Every structure is written in C-alpha cells, then in structure tokens.
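Q: I'm writing up a methods section and want to include an example of the input and output format. Could you take the sequence below and give the corresponding predicted structure tokens, formatted cleanly so I can copy it straight into the document?
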Amino acid sequence: MVDAVIFAVPFFVLFVVIEALSFHFAPDDDERGYELRDAATSMTMGAGSQVVGFVWKFASIFVYAAAYKFLAPFDLDVVENAAIASSPWLIAAVIIGLFFADDLAYYWFHRGHHRIRVLWASHVVHHSSQYYNFTTALRQSWTPMTTLPFWLPLALIGFPPWLIFLQQSISLGYQFFLHTERVDKLWRPVEAVMNTPSHHRVHHGSDDQYLDKNYGGILIIWDRAFRTFEPEGARVTYGLTRNIETFNPLRVAFHEYAAIWRDVIHARSWRARAGYVFGPPGWGAEQTGSR
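A: Here is the clean output for your methods example:
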C-alpha cells in the first residue's frame, strides 16, 4: 500500500508557510488570504483524515485485492507481471492508462459527492471554509468510506491495488496546488486541458453560476466532455450557500450527517426520507443542511 501523500506532508506545510508569508509581504485586497482559526481548523481536519484514511485503506485494500485477483480479466501489475515489466512500452501504456482511468474515476467520485446528499455529507467538509488557500486543500473528510465504489472498476480491469493507491496519492498531491488565489489563469492550452487554480476556484464557489462545476482532478477534459465546465469570471464567493460558521472540527466533520438525520426524522413520507438521503443537496424546500 503506497500513500505518497504522507511523504508530501512536510512539503505541504512548507508551501502553506510560503503562501501565508506572500500574503503578509504582498497583500492583495481582492484575495481573502488567511485567517488563523480557519487555517488551524483545516489543518486539524487534514491530520484527522490521514489517521482515519490510514485505517480505512487497510479495509478497502482487501476489497480491491479480491477484485483484482479473482475477477479481473487482465493482470496489469508493472512489477509482478513479467511480460509487462520487461517492456518499457507496456509499462508506459499501463501507467498512462491508469492515469486517465484514475482521473475519470475521480471525476465521477467528485460529481457523485456533489449530487447525492449522503455522499455530500462527507465531501462538504472540503467546501466548508470561506477562505481559499493551501490549508483549504488539507480540509478533508473524516468519513472516507464513500470512496471505495468509484475506484473498484480499476481493480476489476486489472490494475493492482498498490498502483491504484499510488496514483490516487499523486492526484491528491497535484490537487493541493490548485487551492490558491496567488496564481492567476495560466497559458491557454494548459487551461484547456489541465485543472488549474482558476478552474478549481470556480469549483469552490457558492455563487449560483459556479455551483456543481469543474469536478476534475488533474484534467479538466472530463468537465468539458460532460458539460460541467465553467470558466472563472466574476469574483468567486468561497464556502457554502449556507455557511456553518464554526471552527469546531467535530461540527465541521459531521454537521451534514446531523442535518440529514433531522430532516429524515421530521419527514412525513418515505419518499421524502429517501429524497433527503439520496437526493441532491438542497432537495426539498425545508432541508436544514448545507449546500
């Protein structure tokens, strides 16, 4: 099991310090910058997610390993499969194939976690900050169990679990650097293909024009293909449409689950109960949760 994110943590902290100092020495009135309590909450959420995620990977790896070993029609292990390991061209083909397969899986994972409320209850943590800086990237869920189904097809194809986890870590490492206001739009060909800070600022917007847009991980091509792309225009308002106004990590982690429970127990029909759990965030005029 390979988790490159663990090894990248010192570099993440270093870039947080560099970015914070850049706001101190070169402030920009159009950028929100840092707020100490918010940043501390984000980093606490990040630390907690690593602890929970480490434990969860031990459970999920068994599912992926079983799918890979007993159900996959191919063996795409670039180390253990001698036929692949002996050919640089086949190794490259597997790695490139995994890159695109992982990024597509991330797109649907991300989109599903915005459109199904019980999944949104996990992902909302990442959107709960009203600031947008490198610490926002660290504000991660403490309930990662919802990730497993979206990458299971990769194991069923024949990618070994260790390679899937490695590519996930690489993707998350790339996405860390998307969470900044300090980088403007990049060269147009890059913006056309890659997910960039500009594209991801849109994704973190609570403005009507930006809701449910730009789900991509490393690439933005999936959003263009599936018509969920929105370019950055008007200044982005970060956070939720109904902000939770708390720095308490427990409330940040579980507030939407509590809101779902309140809505379910007060619902007057089973249809409404199902809607509150499996409908999109905002389903039902009286919904009490965040969006």
